[in-house]
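Re: that backbone. Tokens:
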């Protein structure tokens, strides 16, 4: 078996470096010949298990790819490294990618991960913050690189709340959830799939004010790359996306095994607490729930429904003040998805199991 390097990463509670690649052992199916770099948008939570499973199960290796996975620092900080070629592919929020495209970065979405948007403002249930107006007079924490912060102006405009009456504080990804759990702040912007699992694992319940419930309709997490990668290396895009979708399908159908493999794949989780495993478990469940949409069932995992992509573009243009947004059909392609599907029975059982993990309005 070829040796895959292991670099230091971060614990779930805090980062200990700027990049921290994840070296993960994979079955010796075939020696990978093409090196590929992928950046996540956030910490290595269970919401991104599909990437670790794709590597661990050899879904990329059997296609001739040696994929390195790095942590992220928010969707807003994925665009530039991918555009500059530091990464071949990045996972980020589609609205953020479109905003970046409006600033001249030539990025294209090649697959969807979360057709349902889990972006919002979250608080502990005890604070009874249940509607946007309740945020006035409060301190709300953000990571400036995250999609929720990038879309905050859209949320303010859509809800009509007085932004001047809300104190915004910024902190890095590692500190954000900890600040809410330790009651340093009463609310924070985040993705439901990032915050809910961490707090649930500590026995805490949260209220959710979802952007989508206030007219900000969007397709959420997607896989993006440079347009030139699609034009010059279409086979690479096909191999990468199909391997990733195989990982997504495996997580959908094998949640318990996927938790164990994810836990083993990230070195700092080894020997860790049950709480950390619960975080992974809950994160996987949320991610699966966000993927249970008709488009995935009918067209295959990763498919981006054109009407929802167009709606996302309209949201960006309307609420984020982007004046030079490229034509919608130039910012995404479904040519690399559609081959990985669930059977009707697989879909029914997965949907039934995951439904309770969907975000619910406060």
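Recovered sequence:
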């Amino acid at each position: 078996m070829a040796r895959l390097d292991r670099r230091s990463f971060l614990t779930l509670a805090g980062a200990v470096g700027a990049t921290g690649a994840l070296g993960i052992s994979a079955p010796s199916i075939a020696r990978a010949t093409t090196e590929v770099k992928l950046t996540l948008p956030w910490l290595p939570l269970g919401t991104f298990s599909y990437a670790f499973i794709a590597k661990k199960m050899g879904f990329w290796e059997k296609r001739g790819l040696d994929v390195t996975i790095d942590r992220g620092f928010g969707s807003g900080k994925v665009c530039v490294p991918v555009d500059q070629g530091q990464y071949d592919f990045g996972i980020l929020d589609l609205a953020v990618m479109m905003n970046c495209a409006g600033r001249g970065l030539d990025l294209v979405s090649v697959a969807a991960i979360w057709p349902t948007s889990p972006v919002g403002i979250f608080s502990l249930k005890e604070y009874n913050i249940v509607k946007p107006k309740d945020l006035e007079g409060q301190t709300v924490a953000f990571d400036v690189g995250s999609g929720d912060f990038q879309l905050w102006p859209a949320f303010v405009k859509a809800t009509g709340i007085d932004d001047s009456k809300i104190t915004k504080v910024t902190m890095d990804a590692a500190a954000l959830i900890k600040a809410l759990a330790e009651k340093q702040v009463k609310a924070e912007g985040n993705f439901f799939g990032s915050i809910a699992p961490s707090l649930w694992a500590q026995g805490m319940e949260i209220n959710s004010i979802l952007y989508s419930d206030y007219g900000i309709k969007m397709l959420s997490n997607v896989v993006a790359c440079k347009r030139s990668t699609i034009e010059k290396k279409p086979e690479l895009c096909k191999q990468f996306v199909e391997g990733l979708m195989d990982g997504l399908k495996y997580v959908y159908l094998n949640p318990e095994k996927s938790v164990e493999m994810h836990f083993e794949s990230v070195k700092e989780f080894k020997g860790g607490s049950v709480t950390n495993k619960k975080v992974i478990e809950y994160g996987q469940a949320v991610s699966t729930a966000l993927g249970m949409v008709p488009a995935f069932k009918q067209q295959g995992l990763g498919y981006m429904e054109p009407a929802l992509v167009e709606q996302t573009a309209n949201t960006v243009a309307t609420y984020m003040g982007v004046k030079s947004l490229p034509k919608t059909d130039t910012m995404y392609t479904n040519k690399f998805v559609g081959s990985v599907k669930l059977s009707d029975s697989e879909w029914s059982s997965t949907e039934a199991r995951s439904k309770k993990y969907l975000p619910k309005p406060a």
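Residues 133 and 161 are 6 Å apart (CA to CA). The first strand starts at residue 21 and ends at 22.
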